[in-house]
Design a protein that fits this description.
Blueprint (H helix, E strand, L loop, with lengths): L6 E5 L4 H12 L3 E6 L2 H13 L3 E6 L5 H15 L4 E4 L16 H29 L2 E6 L14 H19 L4 E7 L14 H10 L9 H12 L9 E4 L8
Parallel strand pairs: 1-2, 1-4, 2-3, 4-5, 5-6, 6-7
Helix pairs in contact: 1-7, 3-4, 4-5
Length: about 250
């Protein structure tokens, strides 16, 4: 198993992407520490992981709260013996569909504030332990890219680009301590679009038609790539993004 003996913290573990990543980590042998704001949904994820033979722990944590983030990371490192993988998958609260010339300031800056603050806080908390261990992997989710005509993403792409700047700086500073920092980039995951959303079909079509493979990345794809990135098989990879856009983003 790729992650046997590793302790992985997943923030936003109750979301669809968080569940996929947590399940993949547990399948590959990691002890997963599920963090989020809603205990009931975290317990559901943990129960499914345990039913499949994995090991999962839950904790109510607000990723916008520095004290809570630090205390949880300290507890994981102290009780489990290490903190080996950290990934932030919380929702950014973005507002899409409104042109930038018309969007209210608070709607524009909400995802930027949330993404940068939570990514910094969760990475900082993990880094303090990983530096001491001289090993560890910090994963981010998003990736910068060019917007397309007709896409009114508000502050979301700005938030992703800011996260990439943070990822580069973290990788540069933490590399000498044996800590790797990577971004998982998709071109959109149709499975996370609510079925009742009126424009679901149109958005799915726009995601798929941009790809070179004629399909979009799935939640399972994201989980599998995250497990690989966190494993020693990817030990030579840092300061970069893993392109899982099915060719929508050409490097």
């Amino acid at each position: 198993m790729l992650l046997e003996g590793k302790n992985a913290v997943i923030y936003g573990a109750a979301g669809m992407i968080g569940r996929a990543v947590a399940s993949a980590f547990a399948r590959e042998g990691a002890v997963v520490h599920l963090a989020g704001r809603t205990p009931a949904t975290l317990r559901e994820v943990a129960e499914r992981i345990r039913a499949a033979g994995g090991t999962a722990h839950t904790a109510q944590v607000d990723a916008l709260d520095a004290a809570q983030i630090d205390a949880h990371a300290d507890t994981v490192a102290a009780t489990a013996g290490s903190l080996d993988v950290s990934i932030n998958l919380i929702a950014h609260g973005d507002v899409q569909g409104t042109p930038l010339a018309e969007i209210p300031l608070e709607d524009f800056e909400r995802p930027v504030h949330t993404a940068v603050r939570t990514t910094f806080l969760t990475a900082r908390a993990a880094a303090r332990h990983m530096i001491r261990q001289r090993s560890g992997v910090i994963l981010m989710f998003g990736g910068d890219g060019d917007p397309l005509p007709g896409q009114h993403l508000g502050g979301l792409q700005v938030a992703f680009t800011a996260m990439e700047a943070l990822r580069r700086s973290l990788a540069c500073e933490l590399g000498p301590h044996g800590v790797r920092v990577l971004t998982l980039q998709t071109g959109g995951i149709p499975e996370v679009i609510p079925p009742e959303f009126a424009e679901r079909a149109a958005i799915t079509d726009s995601i798929v038609t941009r790809t070179l493979l004629g399909r979009a990345a799935t939640l399972e794809d994201v989980g599998n790539v995250a497990a690989f990135a966190a494993s020693d098989l990817a030990r030579s990879m840092t300061a970069t993004k893993l392109n899982i856009t099915c060719g929508a983003e050409v490097d």
